[in-house]
């Protein structure tokens, strides 16, 4: 079998280990279930293409092991016997459909073509056929991989079958190492810069692979296998605007934008993890600095919370904030110490477990070298299936993003400055600049009682301008601040209040 030979002849020890594990899972499944009881879900993507060839090799080796073949059959003498399901969709790329049918013809794959949605199609198929297990090309990092093992029963509400995931622990790098080492055909879209292919409605070439052709004044893209950070493979999936991101905060006088072009106010929450802050041993400097940075790009910070170094405390706070803020920043509690519970808390907030991340472990190993011993596996355990590594040339180790939660590893303001710059440069976060807020200040020696009524009227007249007050001392002057994104309105609010306060003095 050419696949097995290509891997055995390879010098890639990691690929060999991944291959051996996948083949073991496949052979185990074939020992547990008859060939009539298993099926393979093929969608034409890179992961299922890898699985197709692993199944070809795995079944062939299984036959050899049980004396049904002498091992001398070539590719095209070997018929692929596993029932293969293909869900044909009107929203699929034509290239995916073409590749699927051409591949099936090349390797003797008999396709069961279903034109229903995935769940309905499976229900119909399992009623008609004695299928008990389905091979899936799911990998850690896929949205559907959360909580799955190599053998996992189907979820509640789905028809009963065993999900068999031979490449669950494979990385993006492993997938491409296999395809290129075995020299098998894959969908041509991957050579055009597509790194993760969904439907025609939500998939574009990955901008990280873009090459600007100045001569032709058009964009070209490098092949998918040239993406250096596999955690960014889904950067080519079009992001849908969440309801939260488009909403306007329902607070009076809190930057309620009424102009259509100003309606995108984004909010952030900040969570600091550390008993030392709560005990008063140290003073938190990162929170105020992060507030200023967010303010400078037009974001509103809706909450700063300090929580104990406790998994449940972190999880409770993150769970609250991730659904009410467009972005949550959390810092403290990152590292190998017993009190470093932030990753575990974030995982619990999303209802997932911590799992080893090989790519992150490689970064840590390069950073710490021989010192990276002991609890190294614990440091590289990240929230399973929801983690994206934010790599940047300024960062020795990537930052961790779990959906809309960013875990900062900074321990001081200088480190925060570097990580912030990297976040702003990154194309994989939604941390876009909305334009800075404009600030004006008015100082008066009037008492709070004298200022209260005029200030309330101005706040009502200018609901899209934030107006706040503070005194540095009880007997000092009152400073009134005006914040907004429309300079004319900020000026108008301040002038209107000046007039009202002048009348109070008279």
From TrEMBL:
Pathway: Cofactor biosynthesis; FAD biosynthesis; FAD from FMN: step 1/1. Its EC number is 2.7.7.2. It catalyses: FMN + ATP + H(+) = FAD + diphosphate. It comes from the Eukaryota. Keywords: ATP-binding, FAD, Flavoprotein, FMN, Nucleotide-binding, Nucleotidyltransferase, Transferase. The keyword Disulfide bond does not apply. GO terms for biological process: FAD biosynthetic process. GO terms for molecular function: ATP binding; FMN adenylyltransferase activity. Residues 269-413 form the MoaB/Mog domain. SMART domains: MoCF_biosynth (SM00852). CDD domains: FAD_synthase. Gene3D superfamilies: HUPs, MoaB/Mog-like domain. This is FAD synthase. It comes from Centaurea solstitialis (yellow star-thistle).
């Amino acid at each position: 079998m050419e696949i097995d030979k290509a891997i055995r002849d390879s010098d890639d020890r990691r690929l060999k280990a991944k291959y051996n594990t996948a083949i073991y899972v496949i052979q185990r499944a074939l020992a547990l279930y008859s060939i009539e009881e298993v099926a393979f879900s093929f969608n034409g993507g890179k992961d299922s293409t890898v699985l197709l060839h692993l199944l070809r090799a795995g079944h062939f080796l299984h036959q050899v092991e049980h004396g049904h073949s002498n091992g001398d059959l070539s590719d095209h003498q070997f018929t692929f016997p596993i029932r293969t399901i293909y869900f044909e969709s009107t929203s699929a790329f034509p290239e995916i459909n073409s590749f699927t049918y051409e591949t099936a013809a090349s390797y003797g794959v008999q396709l069961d073509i279903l034109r229903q949605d995935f769940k309905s199609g499976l229900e119909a198929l399992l009623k008609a056929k004695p299928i008990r297990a389905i091979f899936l090309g799911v990998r850690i990092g896929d949205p559907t991989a959360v909580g799955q093992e190599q053998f996992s029963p189907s979820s509640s509400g789905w028809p009963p079958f065993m999900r068999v995931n031979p490449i669950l622990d494979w990385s993006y790098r492993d997938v491409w190492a296999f395809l290129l080492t075995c020299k098998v055909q894959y969908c041509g879209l991957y050579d055009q810069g597509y790194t993760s292919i969904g439907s025609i409605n939500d998939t574009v070439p990955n901008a990280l692979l873009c090459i600007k052709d100045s001569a032709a004044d058009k964009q070209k893209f490098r092949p998918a296998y040239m993406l250096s950070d596999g955690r960014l493979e889904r950067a080519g999936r079009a992001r849908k605007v969440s309801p939260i991101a488009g909403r306007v905060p329902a607070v009076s006088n809190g930057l309620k934008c009424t102009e259509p072009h100003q309606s995108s106010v984004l909010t952030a929450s900040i969570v600091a993890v550390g008993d030392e802050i709560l005990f008063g041993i140290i003073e938190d400097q990162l929170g105020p600095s992060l507030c200023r940075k967010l303010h400078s790009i037009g974001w509103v910070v809706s909450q700063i919370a300090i929580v104990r170094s406790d998994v449940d405390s972190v999880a409770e706070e993150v769970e609250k904030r991730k659904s009410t803020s467009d972005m949550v920043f959390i810092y403290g509690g990152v590292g190998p110490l017993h009190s470093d519970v932030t990753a575990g808390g974030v995982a619990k907030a999303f209802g997932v477990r911590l799992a080893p991340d090989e790519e992150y472990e490689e970064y840590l190993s390069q950073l710490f070298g021989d010192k990276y011993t002991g609890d190294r596996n614990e440091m590289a355990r990240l929230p399973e299936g929801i983690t994206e590594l934010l790599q940047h040339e300024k960062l020795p180790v990537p930052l961790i993003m779990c959906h809309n939660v960013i875990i900062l590893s900074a321990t001081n303001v200088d480190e925060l400055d570097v990580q912030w710059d990297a976040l702003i440069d990154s194309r994989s976060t939604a941390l876009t600049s909305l334009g800075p807020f404009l600030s004006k200040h008015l100082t008066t020696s009037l008492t709070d009682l004298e200022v209260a009524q005029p200030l309330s009227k101005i706040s009502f007249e200018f609901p899209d301008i934030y107006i706040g007050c503070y005194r540095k001392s009880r007997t000092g002057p009152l400073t009134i601040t005006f914040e907004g994104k429309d300079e004319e309105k900020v000026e108008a609010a301040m002038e209107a209040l000046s007039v009202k306060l002048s009348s109070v003095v008279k």
